[in-house]
């Protein structure tokens, strides 16, 4: 294997394999049919698969890393193209991931990460943990399955691997029960609000917790969306309903009912910043602002800190009542902003809000093109959320 040409080993974008190793005549190449990609060799086929992920950088980098590792291992250690790999070969590769040898060829110099175009670059920074090995195989299985569907490969050498039976997901436990949630709200309402700074902090906390609970937002959704995402739309009965358009996880967009309670809190919050009662479309004002009147978004870390401070304040209030309240105080100290999202979902489900509406409110699935025209369904979701999901500030 050491006789391989120098340009046969390196990052995927720099690899230039000889014809006997490039997969142009791989044993597992599909014969006949109608290929859906134009790739004639393994490197180009892998690049065609990776092209689907170029807009999501972290996913692209992760998938490219696993693909190039396997391709380089195949041609270097086995002397065969990726498109000739068998199921038994992949079993050997799984063991290789746990201990890439020889180290000088496969592992970067300790304590240093080299640029991809540097001669010192290597595919690994060390041995992979068991979980990382499993993740690598999952990614490669996805790649092989796609190449089969694309008509490039005849079969997926990983498809006959033993599949673990999927466990059903446990019930959500990281949420605040009703008595604990009441304590959190009481703690917020007891915050000092005499000075201008105290008032600004008080109304910001009320607004933040209203967003997290009434809309079920993730912290990232709070920090990356703006007040210009609010809009009103007239329903079939002539009533104006407010909505919040949220771009969230995976760059998916959903619209969340902005109930009367939420809009009242928004008006109060904007008043503290001398803003007009209601935002206008496209307004760049962040959903949550720093203390002091600056018009910039807070970081995720800053919002996490605000939430943890509120939970700590509530925990101290609770534990002052005696030892029997220690467990509740401990739960509050363990809680995070995401617990409010789970609390929101649990409350909506408990209030018999249609589970389809809960799903759409929390954005567990993306909004389909068709749903953009089903305003009647959206309006019913708004009304069901209004009836069954309240924060009830005193």
From TrEMBL:
It is found in: Cytoplasm. Residues 44-148 form the Core-binding (CB) domain. GO terms for cellular component: cytoplasm. GO terms for biological process: cell division; chromosome segregation; DNA integration; DNA recombination. Gene3D superfamilies: 1.10.150.130, Intergrase catalytic core. The keyword ATP-binding does not apply. It comes from the Bacteria. Signal peptide: none annotated. Transmembrane segments: none annotated. Pfam families: Phage_integrase (PF00589). Residues 171-386 form the Tyr recombinase domain. CDD domains: DNA_BRE_C. This is Integrase family protein. It comes from Thauera aminoaromatica. The lineage of its organism: Bacteria, Pseudomonadati, Pseudomonadota, Betaproteobacteria, Rhodocyclales.
């Amino acid at each position: 294997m050491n006789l391989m040409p120098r340009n046969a080993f390196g990052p995927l974008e720099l690899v230039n394999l000889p014809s006997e190793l490039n997969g142009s005549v791989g044993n597992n190449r599909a014969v006949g049919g109608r290929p859906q990609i134009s790739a004639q060799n393994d490197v180009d086929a892998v690049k065609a698969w990776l092209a689907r992920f170029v807009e999501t950088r972290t996913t692209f980098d992760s998938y490219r890393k696993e693909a190039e590792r396997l391709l380089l291992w195949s041609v270097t250690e086995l002397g065969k193209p990726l498109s000739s790999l068998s199921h038994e070969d992949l079993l050997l590769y799984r063991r290789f991931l746990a201990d890439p040898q020889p180290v000088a060829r496969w592992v970067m110099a300790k304590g240093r990460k080299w640029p991809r175009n540097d001669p010192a670059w290597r595919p690994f920074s060390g041995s992979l943990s068991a979980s990382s090995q499993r993740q690598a195989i999952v990614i490669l299985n996805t790649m092989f399955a796609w190449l089969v569907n694309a008509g490039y490969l005849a079969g997926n050498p990983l498809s006959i691997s033993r599949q673990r039976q999927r466990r059903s997901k446990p019930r959500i436990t990281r949420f605040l029960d009703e008595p604990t949630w009441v304590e959190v709200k009481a703690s917020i309402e007891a915050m000092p609000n005499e000075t201008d700074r105290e008032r600004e902090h008080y109304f910001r906390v009320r607004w933040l917790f209203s967003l997290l609970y009434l809309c079920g937002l993730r912290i990232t959704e709070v920090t990356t969306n703006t007040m210009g995402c609010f809009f009103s739309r007239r329903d079939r009965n002539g009533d104006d309903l407010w909505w919040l358009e949220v771009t969230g996880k995976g760059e998916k967009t959903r619209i969340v009912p902005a109930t009367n309670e939420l809009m009242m809190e928004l008006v109060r919050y904007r008043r503290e910043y001398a803003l007009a009662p209601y935002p206008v479309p496209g307004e760049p004002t962040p959903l949550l602002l720093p203390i002091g009147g600056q018009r910039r978004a807070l970081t995720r870390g800053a919002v996490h800190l605000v939430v943890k401070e509120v939970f700590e304040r509530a925990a101290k209030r609770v534990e002052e009542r005696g030892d029997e309240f220690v467990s509740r105080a401990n739960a509050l100290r363990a809680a995070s902003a995401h617990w409010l999202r789970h609390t929101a979902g649990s409350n909506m489900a408990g209030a018999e809000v249609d589970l389809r509406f809960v799903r759409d409110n929390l954005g567990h699935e993306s909004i389909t093109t068709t749903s953009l025209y089903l305003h009647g369904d959206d309006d019913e979701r708004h009304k069901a959320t209004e009836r069954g999901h309240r924060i009830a500030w005193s």
